[in-house]
Specification:
Blueprint: H1 5-19, H2 35-38, E1 55-59, E2 68-72, H3 77-89, H4 106-109
Antiparallel strand pairs: 1-2
Length: 122
């Protein structure tokens, strides 16, 4: 019934009239849901993951005090010294700034705005 609205309404009313006949025992089921179940604006409380143990900051570079890594506080002193030595020995694998990312094209890191420099802002 795409083209004729009148015929569509007649067919709809005929279909409804069949349900209202006195001998008909068919139950009409209407699905109703609570608004909180279907409301997309309702946000569930997000639980963020937390560290299993407390962390201790370890300064790995004496020349730059901002270079700090965190290790677990539950480590034994021997294991902690081994981990700190390993981290200090492998400082070249850590990226502290975007300039340290060798081999990554600047087009990946930079956002270029679609702006014509000949036009001044109004």
């Amino acid at each position: 019934m795409k083209s004729n609205q009148y015929e569509a309404r007649v067919a709809y009313s005929d279909a409804l009239r069949e349900y209202d006949q006195p001998g008909r025992q068919e139950a009409r089921v209407v699905h109703q849901y609570a608004m909180e179940d279907i409301d997309p604006r309702v946000q569930e409380e997000i639980t963020w993951s937390q560290p299993i143990e407390q962390l201790i900051e370890v300064q790995v570079d004496e020349d730059e005090p901002t270079k700090v890594l965190k290790v677990g506080s539950d480590l034994t002193p021997t294991l902690r010294n081994e981990v700190e030595g390993f981290l200090r020995g492998n400082l070249d694998v850590f990226v502290w700034t975007h300039a340290n990312m060798k081999g990554i094209d600047a087009k990946v890191m930079c956002h270029i705005l679609n702006v014509d420099p000949l036009y001044s802002p109004k």
